[in-house]
Amino acid sequence: MQSEKPYLLFPYRFMRFNEDVLLVNEAGEFIFLSEDDFARLLSYQLETNSETFLNLKSKHIVTNSDPTLPIYLLATKYRTKKSFLNDFTALHIFIVTLRCNQKCRYCQASSEDETKTEFDMDLYTAKKCVDMVFKSPSPTIKIEFQGGEPLLNFEIVKYIVQYSEKLNKIHHKRLEFVICTNLLAIDEQILRYLEGHNIWISTSLDGPKDIHDANRITRKGSGTYDIISKNIKLAKEKLGNHRVDALMVTTKNNVSQLNKVIDEYLKQGFCSIFIRTLHPFGRATKEKLGYDVETFFENYKKALTYIIQLNLDGVTISEQYATIILTKILTPFPVGFVDLQSPAGTGIGCAVYGFNGDVFVSDEARMLAKMGDHRFLMGNVRRNSYEEIFKGTVTQEAIENSCVESLPQCSECAFQVYCGADPVRNYYGQNDLIGHRPTSEFHQLNFLVIRHLMELIKENNQDIMNVFWSWITNRSIDEIKGLNRG
Q: Which of 48, 105, 160, 242 has the smallest set of CB atoms within 10 Å of its CB?
């Protein structure tokens, strides 16, 4: 039956945004309206030939024609946004040892002394883990070696790589390897092996020497900056600049000095930086290295402004947290970042295999278990089948309680499609898988950063937007300018 109203409204979420109103549809397409136009929209008084109405129609928020086609198009866009669910678990993190030759003051993994070989993954467990990984239906398998320090059990790393390559001759998946290492134990022989098997390196760099050495220290208490700087250079010379990446942790020592950290990344030849918050696990809960959300956010904004200006001055460097969110806002495509997915990537996007064969829904879940709480233990490769682990109660509960579309407050939030949920952090911080949004630091921070990026997008400064598109598409600003002219 044809409605007597001049147009039909499709589902959307909205929020007051300074002097305007932000509307976001189910696929993440958005538009800003004045309060007057928003009122006219709701009262069905918008002229259907007006520019505002046509813009709303292009975003599938309204239609004045047969709704069949726009509903189909909107459904297609929604499926694209959720396409990360199609393939199931792609990232598999192997904790090949808990031993470490460092004793970082914020260590989230609660590492063990490097002499304690009882915390090494053995050959039988390693084989069982790889066999489990290749049961995943995902066409892409990424195995990430973590610890402790995985180079301290490098023989098992080599076994896992070679056994995986052997199995992949049968399964024909896109197989990738990353080793997360502090680089203290790297040498020419290890680098030759990594080069021969196309293994990427992810290391840790918290900033210049005084900042880095404040927290990242050896077991004997000495700083590690000098040796890792030398070994970053060595690794890049051997593997190529693009196969060596670094991550930093923001603590009270560097939160107000992020520009110095950014400068250090440029000095070391990195083209991107991920400004990450301190996770409250392991020793990070004991050491007083934290800060509140507002402190981080205000310094993050300053750092983002600095990075944008560097790009405008001709220096190539991106900020990865912003890039992930901008990709979700400005493109129809999903991202592989499991922290900003709905449902969360716990188990279905990422799985973590402990040195003893325990399988967890996330790295945070593994850290929580090291602290004595096994709430998110899915099973063990020695005892359980693939179905028991990945279709079990723990996995299902994590998924059921991390769909933002049905969570309190998230269900009504205009930023819903750009955000995500983390049942592990909710449980740890608030003793509840769903959590309480107003007091959740995870959600407070995501909200603040998404809003800030939306404000920059709303300003529509062409120079800034060129920088954003260069990050999203991994192109130079000159290329983006050329596309704009074309």
A: 242
